[in-house]
Prior knowledge:
Elements: H1 2-18, E1 25-36, E2 39-44, H2 48-54, E3 60-69, H3 71-81, E4 90-98, E5 109-117, E6 125-128, E7 136-138, E8 146-149, E9 161-170, E10 177-186, E11 189-198, H4 204-225
Antiparallel strand pairs: 1-2, 1-3, 3-4, 4-9, 5-8, 5-10, 6-9, 7-8, 10-11
Helix pairs in contact: 1-4
Amino acid sequence: MRNLCxxxxxxxxxxxxxxxxRALTLHEDVAYWYTDGEQILTIFDPSTDWLAENIPTGxxxxxxxxxxxxxxxxxxxxxxxxxxxxxxxFLYAYSVTNLNVGDPDDLSDxxxxxxxxxxxxxPAYVTVARHAPxxxxxxxxxxxxxxKWTSATAPGILPGxxxxxxxxxxxxxxxxxxxxQVLHIGGIQSHTVTGKTTGPIPETPTILALATxxxxxxxxxxxxxx
Length: 226
């Protein structure tokens, strides 16, 4: 029974690594941008106690969630999205929640209308998921990944709302915090809110080595048991 369990574990690990039908998440975290006096700071994956204490005060402005997928899943996800099969790498999927930026009762307030991540080096490919609202487009002239709201008749991300599907593909993983920003347009004025996001991920060869090692271990234990 023990040998069977080890073998099943190895098969499951390999299946997660090579199967395009099941997306393998390499890393996921959530960043909250909040005010501290005159500064805007970032806290990653805070406790529920921190959120319960700070969100009601109005100090927490923006939430950014980032999920990183392995290269095989990336190709499958992009293909289903209509982006073809020519963009290998790690898929960084972002969603942005406007917690307290702007005035939802002001009809001239367009909310958050742009999201930018300061990658270095620049990503290999940037796109928008099909599930994102119509009107969000990639700002192609920008040297960094930028997604802009282009509708003139409807607002962008108002307080209390979330938009996901901001996707970028990189060839290497990040192991550090990176700067990010959102643009808020209220009436005829606009201002930028800055914060950070991050995404440390393991390299693909490490995952393959782990899966292969588990498979070898299962075979070895089974042979010895026979």
